[in-house]
Amino acid sequence: VIAIANPQYGENERQIEAKGIDIMIALDVSKSMQAEDLREGYSRLKVAKMGIAKMIQSLHSDHVGIVVFAGDAYKQLPITPDYQVATMFLKNIETQMISSQGTDIGNAIDKCVSSFDFQRETNKTIIILSDGEDHQEQGIAAAEIAFNEGIIINTIGMATTKGVPIPIYRNGKAIGIKKDKDNQTVLTKLNEQMLYDIAEVGNGVYTRANGMDIGIENILNRINKIEKATLDVDRYTSYDDQFQPYLLIA
Predict the structure, then answer these.
(1) CA 79, CA 89: separation in Å to the nearest integer?
(2) Closest C-alpha to 37, from 208, 170, 160
(3) Is the pLDDT of residue 171 over 80?
(4) Separation of alpha carbons 135 and 30, rounded Å
(5) By the 8 A CB rule, do 155 and 128 touch?
(6) Element (H, E) at 130
(7) Predicted confidence (pLDDT) at residue 34 exceeds the cutoff of 60
(8) Alpha helix (H) ranges present in 116-165?
(9) Closest listed residue to residue 105, CA positions, set 116, 113, 97, 117
(10) How many other C-beta atoms lie within 10 A of the C-beta of residue 159?
(11) Pairing of strands 124-130, 22-28
């Protein structure tokens, strides 16, 4: 009876360390991200969101946050280890989130930098997804400042080099294309050099989206080369089974 009851004593304690880095994702939500040059029926923004979701699923123990930007930048999600929450916030991102139009990559980098907790001794990286049409041209200077803070910057070009029109939506339906004050169709295309220069200054990698593939593997390979620090320590207590002597006596 005592053997079947399986008495337990002799406490054993194990601790498991979770190692990772802090990742801030800067996602362009300007109107030009509504263009559908990467894949017919899919906007640049939608392709970017699908790629980010895939990347989040591939992370292990890293902490992630999200900044959205156009003419201004806004912290959509503070850095968190909860990937389900990150995916939920990602789904709600749309181009209507920021009224100030344009593409201010420099402001986005600054917002990402301010989102990091420099009291934590973890390595940090920023991933920028944009078509690169930066009208402020402060991205490279901001990237230099971020790199001096020890932050690695990676960029992903979310467009093709061929100029395409920008569709205008109302209530979820396309009602036309964007035109300038002279009634000429506004075309948008990838500013690849800008994104390449930012990645180079930030000691990261630049990759360009090709259809539905945004080159996440290249970014993950770069992230995996960054030294990971201990982010969380979980302790588990277990007890040894002691039924054997009683079973032998029986």
Answers:
(1) 12
(2) 160
(3) no
(4) 12
(5) yes
(6) strand 124-130
(7) yes
(8) 139-148
(9) 113
(10) 27
(11) parallel
